[in-house]
Amino acid sequence: MAHKFNPKHLDKLDNPERRDKLPPVETLEKLGFEAKDILVDIGAGIGYFTIASQEITKGLVPTYALDTSSDMLINLKAREIEITGKNHIQTILTDEYDFKLSKGVATFVLLVNVLHEIDDKTIFIRHIQQILKEHGKVAIIDWKKIEMPEGPPLKHRISVEETKKMLIELGFRIEKSLEFGTELYGLVATK
């Protein structure tokens, strides 16, 4: 069974160290997220990236925050209102393999430290394909498959090579490969 993030550790989702390693707006821009993009943030947690996306889109396009934890989504809505003064982001309580969204709704799907938590990654990515518009992008940030004190156990991590291979086999085209410090890799692929 895949390693899941413990919601008791919410403080790890937004702190000065994370903001230094993964500044949210700058990270989205590096991944190629643009003002016209309809974001689906899967495993949105407290909205670290979802809320930051509003600085780029100015709230002019739909934005979806998905999570399997209602506590995370409640926290996200409170943070959105506190930070932006708006209630724009649509939160959706999902199952792991059911995003509860229409086909072709997204132009940009974001997964940050989520893929390693999924048991059947192929089924999961196929569901992402369904919600992406043609030529839509999926951006994945996850832990490098190396031993380090932070993050999930090594046996639960998926390497950048494994992730690329899976995406290509499922019909995606790799657009960009990135590194975020010594701990995280990033990939952007187009449907």
Could you explain how this protein is built, in words?
This protein is α/β, with parallel strands linked by helices. The chain has one domain (7-190): Vaccinia Virus protein VP39 (Rossmann fold, 3-Layer(aba) Sandwich). Helices cover 31% and strands 25% of the residues. The protein is built from six helices and seven strands; from the N terminus they run ααβαβαββαβαββ. The protein has helices spanning 16-21, 24-31, 48-57, 70-84, 121-131, 160-169; strands spanning 39-42, 63-67, 90-93, 106-112, 132-143, 173-180, 184-190. A seven-stranded mixed sheet has the order 3-2-1-4-5-7-6, with helices on both faces. The longest helix is centred in the middle third of the chain and has 15 residues, at 70-84. It starts with 15 loop residues before the first helix and ends with a strand. It comes from Fusibacter bizertensis. Keywords: Methyltransferase, Transferase. This is Methyltransferase domain-containing protein. Residues 1-21 are annotated as: Disordered. It holds the Pfam family Methyltransf_23.
